[in-house]
Amino acid sequence: MKIIQASHLVKSFGAGDEKRNVLDDVSVEINKGEFVTVMGPSGSGKSTLLFVLSGMDGADSGKVSFDGKDLSSLKDNELADLRRTEMGFVFQKAALLSNLNILDNIILPSVRGNAKHTAKLTERAKGLMKKAGIEGLEERDLTQVSGGQLQRAGICRALMGNPNIIFGDEPTGALNSKTAAEIMDILAEINEDGTAILLVTHDAIVAAKSERILFMLDGKIASEMALPKFKGERLDERVEAVAAKMREIGI
Ligand SMILES: Nc1ncnc2c1ncn2[C@@H]1O[C@H](COP(=O)(O)OP(=O)(O)OP(=O)(O)O)[C@@H](O)[C@H]1O
Question: ABC transporter domain: from which residue to which, for each copy (predicted)?
């Protein structure tokens, strides 16, 4: 069962001599509940792929099906609904609003058009905060919490709609290694509960915790690597295997 089926995606930026394909005939499938990471050098098209697969940006050609729905056939409001109800997004910086406290930041995207359910949403947000290890920080301003706590809040916000997939662009990129590992543990738990995860990362340790790594080079998926589901053991060996693969393909 696939959550994403994308075929022959092409996307270019620039014009004339400057024009280049940032996605150059990329086809990729993500299974329901799968944990996939995307690696590759800076500028190889990783973020662009994430944006196109999540419908945040369109491709010049090619097709993306999300749970069987062709994204290009959806109207803007249908696409927005799909993103709100089926997808969660986590970025390097949590991009929370500085004039709201942590709790309000988490529930805000869900409250829109749904104001009469605020009490229920607050309850859900508090449950997620507990799971993410930030209970008690509801009333704090953004300046009163750490970077790791902000990222946990960002994950809670992404989970509010109970998505079937989480897209992450370097969600641990701005964190120290201990906090990054804690955030990865939370994402692994979410994945255990059946949510697919697609993460862009430069970090071999992050990639080593996934089930499949897509290596991008110059707008193409140059190689893939499958790994057994990570159960918390042999991480060093997995990281070394990822590093060896990266050396082999010249990343
Ligand atoms: N909106 C845009 N307009 C013009 N060029 C763009 C745009 N977005 C991305 N690009 C270019 O497309 C290429 C791929 O960008 P992308 O962000 O997908 O790469 P990436 O692999 O995620 O890189 P990084 O690891 O540095 O984040 C880059 O050369 C970038 O400059």
Answer: 4-243
Question: How many angstroms separate the alpha carbon of residue 26 from the centre of ligand 1?
Answer: 15
The pTM assigned to this predicted structure is 0.92
Q: Is the pLDDT of residue 107 over 80?
A: yes
- Could you identify the residue written with the tokens 């927005």? 80
45 lines ligand 1 (CB under 6 A): yes
CATH number of 2-249: 3.40.50.300
Substitution site in 9, 38, 42, 57 for ligand 1 pocket (most atoms within 8 Å of beta carbon): 42
The domain segmentation of the chain, as residue ranges, is 2-249
Report helix, strand or coil for 29: strand
pLDDT digits (tens, 9 = 90+) for 35-68: 999 999 999 999 999 999 999 999 999 999 999 9
Cα(11) to centroid of ligand 1, in Å? 11
User: How would you classify the pairing of strands 61-66 and 2-13?
Assistant: antiparallel
Binned at pLDDT 50, 70 and 90, residue 31 comes out as very high
Dist. CA 136 → ligand 1 center (Å): 38
Nearest to 105 by CA among 66, 154, 60: 154
ipTM: 0.93
